[in-house]
UniProtKB/TrEMBL annotation, chain A:
It is found in: Endomembrane system; Membrane. Its EC number is 7.6.2.1. GO terms for molecular function: ATP binding; ATP hydrolysis activity; ATPase-coupled intramembrane lipid transporter activity; magnesium ion binding. Residues 899-1149 form the P-type ATPase C-terminal domain. It is a multi-pass membrane protein. It comes from Brachypodium distachyon. PANTHER family: PHOSPHOLIPID-TRANSPORTING ATPASE DNF1-RELATED, PROBABLE PHOSPHOLIPID-TRANSPORTING ATPASE. Residues 1232-1244 have a biased composition (Polar residues). This is Phospholipid-transporting ATPase. Residues 61-125 form the P-type ATPase N-terminal domain. Belongs to the cation transport ATPase (P-type) (TC 3.A.3) family. Type IV subfamily. The lineage of its organism: Eukaryota, Viridiplantae, Streptophyta, Embryophyta, Tracheophyta.
From TrEMBL, chain B:
Keywords: Membrane, Transmembrane, Transmembrane helix. This is ALA-interacting subunit. Belongs to the CDC50/LEM3 family. The keyword Transmembrane helix applies. GO terms for cellular component: membrane. It is found in: Membrane. The keyword Transmembrane applies.
Amino acid sequence: MSSRIKEMMRVATARLGGEQSPRGGTSQAGRAEASRTARLGGGGGSLRRQPQPQAPTVRTIYCNDREANAPVGYKGNSVSTTKYSVLTFLPKGLFEQFRRVANLYFLMISILSTTPISPVHPVTNVVPLSLVLLVSLIKEAFEDWKRFQNDMSINNAHVDVLQGQKWESAPWKRLQVGDIVRIKQDTYFPSDLLFLSSTNPDGVCYIETANLDGETNLKIRKALEKTWDCVIPEKASEFKGEIQCEQPNNSLYTFTGNLIVDKQTIPISPNQILLRGCSLRNTEYIVAAVIFTGHETKVMMNSMNVPSKRSTLEKKLDKLILALFATLFTMCVIGAIGSGVFINEKYFYLGLRGRVEDQFNPKNRFVVTILTMFTLITLYSTIIPISLYVSIEMIKFIQCAKFINNDLNMYHAESNTPALARTSNLNEELGQVEYIFSDKTGTLTRNLMEFFKCSIGGEIYGTGITEIEKGGAERAGVKIDDDEGKRSATAVHEKGFNFDDARIMRGAWRNEPNPDACVQFCRCLAICHTVLPEGEETPEKITYQAASPDEAALVAAAKNFGFFFYRRTPTTVLVRESHVERMGSIQDVAYEILNVLEFNSTRKRQSVVCRFPNGKLVLYCKGADNVIFERLADGNHDIKKTSREHLEQFGSAGLRTLCLAYRDLSREQYESWNEKFVQAKSSLRDRDKKLDEVAELIEKDLILIGCTAIEDKLQEGVPACIETLSAAGIKIWVLTGDKMETAINIAYACSLVNNDTKQFIITSETDAIRDAEDRGDPVEIARVIKDSVKQSLRSYLEEAHRSLRSTPGRKLAFIIDGRCLMYALDPALRVNLLGLSLICQSVVCCRVSPLQKAQVASLVRKGARKITLSIGDGANDVSMIQAAHVGIGISGQEGMQAVMASDFAIAQFRYLTDLLLVHGRWSYLRLCKVITYFFYKNLTFTLTQFWFTFQTGFSGQRFYDDWFQSLYNVIFTALPVIMVGLFDKDVSASLSKKYPQLYQEGIRNTFFRWKVIAVWGFFAFYQSIVFYYFTAAASQHGHGSSGKILGQWDVSTMAFTCVVVTVNLRLLMSCNSITRWHYFSVAGSIAAWFLFIFIYSAIMTSFDRQENVYFVIYVLMSTFFFYLTLMLAPVIALFGDFLYLSLQRWLFPYDYQVIQEMHKDDPHEYSMIHLPERSHLSPEEARSYAISMLPRENSKHTGFAFDSPGYESFFASQQGVGVPHKPWDVARRASMKQQRQQQHTGRS
Amino acid sequence: MTPGCVITIFLLIGITFVPVGLVCLQASNSVAEIVHRYDIDCVPDAYRRNKQAYIKDSLISKKCIQKVKVQYHMKAPIYVYYELDNFYQNHRRYVKSRSDKQLRHGMKYTDSSCGPLERNNGLPIVPCGLIAWSLFNDTFGFTRGSIGIMVDRKNISWRSDREHKFGKDVYPFNFQNGSLIGGGKLDPDIPLSNQEDLIVWMRAAALPQFRKLYGVIEDDLQADETIDIHITNNYNTYSFGGKKSLVLTTSTWLGGKNDFLGYAYLVTGSASIFLSILFALIHVKIPRPHGDAAYLSWSRKSSN
């Protein structure tokens, strides 16, 4: 049940992003406000908005008293997100349709064709237009129906409402303002509620706001003490509070109001408000009063209108349509001038003497010209493919609904999440993406740190193999067995710990050559941290609350090695140590924590001074390898050297490393230092700096214990996916809020960067900038940073060019941090930035704010005019997702913000391969084919009319019967092209992925260039001439065997037959894969034409129009030359196309054609193992490949990365929420917790 | 579309089209056709400079006798056509100026579609409209020496037109009574469905040069025979410089003389054969290995 509602909420809230604000609640001003802020990209990507201007009135709600509330007439709790109602559907839907230029154009043509200047009956344009409108309206109705059903399922979800003295289940829509409701754990709040009481003793409850802002951490709400006892229904029914509060508004984080109970006025803060869309966690149930319902809830008032994106292909299509308009205009001008010249009284049979209507009046040739212009516009209107847009829409819609959403390859079984196309107008854009901007956490990585390896005393422990090592080994041809089967019995995989080495598990380290180092190693892990244990104090049940997942992983590792940290008091750390004295012995040891020297990005280390129970003073330190190595005591070079090697090894395997060291302190040493420390801590000016300086005094002469390697667990298949995407010519940029080390580390792990890559790093962490910062003048700091950015950009750009010339195959990477990026995005430097980043294969931007992510995306989008894609999972990616051409949200996780803003939602990063390389590419190819084909078929058809115009004295006489013309687009040639749009595939999905290079055809836009269109245009021209003149010439002197001559309608029927047959056959020729659907639809279309003409020429009613084609086809079919022409014209028409296609394929084959040929005979291509492209490595590629295979001993990268507690506060401070966690906070919290526990025990 | 496949397709097209073309040509060649332009010759010398005056003057006899020599043996039935050139029967103003309803159901269906010749003197015209009004009215008779040759003028229109488009009880009314006489007149006692000249004329032609069936001669004409054609040159094509010709032709299964189809087939067929040979040669000389990965763009790029 709860999962069902969750799903419903997911859909409902996901829609918030997609649809315009529904009717009801929202005022006009509110809507304008919402769209304005949405456009700004919402700095933090959150829904935080300026509050609306307050309505002057105050809402007064009488709790638990429906009668009292009745006079006000609050809106019910049912929501409707539908666009239309039964009544408004037709007018509103039609209005929406006519906002499209093509439809409006055809409406105008239809109106024009009711006037006498039209050569065609209105039916010619009205029928296709109404069919197109009908299809569009059906689609709209269908979508709206789905929305309606969604609304219904949400409105009918049940919640417990207080009735009398009992809880009774009622659907959400029955809720009214003032009702008292009970919400159970893990269910959603049905409306905005005032929190009254909770089953938790101190009136708190935990809520999750992921649906609102994407933040997955639990938030605490606390009820007013006055209402705590409402938890039982008897009490709740007695509660008769009166709430006076503000009118509904869209501000999620503000609330003003008072609760008046027992003549006492208590102010209500946002802390007592539970918003619709959030869910209750860790609380059995709560009781609350309804304050805002339905569309008046804050989340509904926040429904934002995501700016709809149009694909680049469609924009280019607009240009094509414009070109068609230009052609149309030219044709009309030629015809109109001709008519002006032609018209003459001498053609007496035209009756031009005396009073003649303006259009044919030879006395005023100018008016004739102008009016004929309009005549011809109506006649040639078919040049604009009316059904193109609706066909494309249908194709894309089905592509999304049937292919993308149903692709099993993109279905994530664990989270039960299929891919979801949230808009259907960007499918083909997926086939042309050149730049991918990816978020790191949650997208590339799982934000799961696992202790993976370690090096103790010069010995590596941990036998796991990282993804990147696997990839490397596979490239080297070494087959690696999946490790699942051969893991040893001691292997443990739990949260934060994924380690397998029998040598040190379960106390086995005692038998290792250096057990003492092991003890120190584990103690360091168990003591030197700021982690807070929670839950039961057993190794199985305990959970560690850490500011960074790295720390939790380290502590978890210590636990697994037998040093179980289980309790923290303000001054001590309690560790249950096993096997230390002897195997099997367990003892609880309390280490007194004397000082915590906190972690920050300058120090890159963290130390703890502790006192052992026996009084021994030890400083434990963990930190980046370079800072630790600087501070090591002399001697012991061997272990330093091997440790460094190990660090590099870990680093290149994509692991995050930390060095551990300790130092024994004498009492005197410590005390003299501690004085300075206390002094520094209590100093008022420059305290942080002074603390750092003091720390330097004691963090020296350290003894290296070893190092740890934590795997920042990548999402499944990420390196392989990235490799495939790069092979496809897609450049991947990582934009992350993380620190530079972390970001680089992930870049290594994702094989975006390797040791052969030349890195250009621009960072604000340089000495010059630090110096400037120390001086503290903000203007000066800005100038220094700007100068250094400018300088390094310029020199890097030169260097990059040089490197490109000297060693062309070399990979370049550009790494920049957010602060420098801010200056680099300055218009003056932007060109250099763009230049440099476009040269580099990979770009990593770290510590960037959400806004900067968006800026980078639009820099490439607008500056380089490349097609961009953004992928992210969190609220901070929203602006980036909206800024790029295509936005992709990672779904299936808790936060929905990114998905709500995205165009496509997938569950895993690796599904990008399928989405882009398979679906995107196919969509692109299909759409190109559909568009060019539409262009061709309408041009061909219209040009035959044009040639006819020349022989009718430019009078604008139509060549074809009205019905032929009106049904041409919608019946006789409609279905096959849709089949192609749906089913055409050049190569299979697996081949698309196997040859990612095929994707480059999309990036280069090979199939929708003016050249391609020109070729189609040329053949349309050629074919139209063939159709018109061949049928005309063939029937010129031809007559039936009884000598009877053919009239105009007979010739045109013949020509039309040829056009329909040829155009349909031409489609078959351009198909890559011909399925029975193709045959069926092509044969069906041709058969439809014949069926139509047979019936049409057989009936003659008194309602017939003029000049009908009665009996034409029967007479035609009694002649031989009809068949001869029908055989000849298509062959000659297609002769050119066939010749062109075969020569092109033969001499200048497209890549996909070569691959088709290569795999023509192997239906099961996966049985082939060899990769043919491997044999075609260029010397450079071969070299870089060889280099990448070399052992990595000269590597510099050691993989230091650590999420310092400061990291979280980075965004938090930007968003104005949250408080940075400091080590002393941890201690304070620990003490508070203890007090609370004591209280509890005392109470009970 | 492998090279082999392309070559085969071209070859197949060639193999089928060349014979069809030959057959068509043969059929077309077996048609004996006499085309005789008479519009200039039938104007008396005195009026050569002002043909319009001649044609408009109803006092001058329009009779005209032309001698035509038959070159080949012509086997009955011989179709007699008149051919007009530069006559835009497909002009929009012309094409729409008719009322199918009136033609079928009679006077009371006269509607505005016939404009500008809908009514005359307040009375509806049957058949109305420009097409009917401009009915072709030259007549032709044939004599061999002094013996007349029968021309069958029945059954020259489409049966479907006669039976379904032109009413059996619709009679011409108020036709050609205006100040301007366009073309032929109609016998008001014969229903429209029997006015075959009108029916033929009203099946508007597609192109400005067109033929219309006049009648059928059921006698053979011998080679080198000279026949006299008795023409009444009534119809005014001089004002707009149109040509008038008389056509006598025999017919085959393909219809009249029409070399176009035969040549088109022949050209297409031989071009196909030529191309298939050319391709075969290229394929043998410089073959592109089928499915050669070296042709992949990324392989080409790296080998450059």
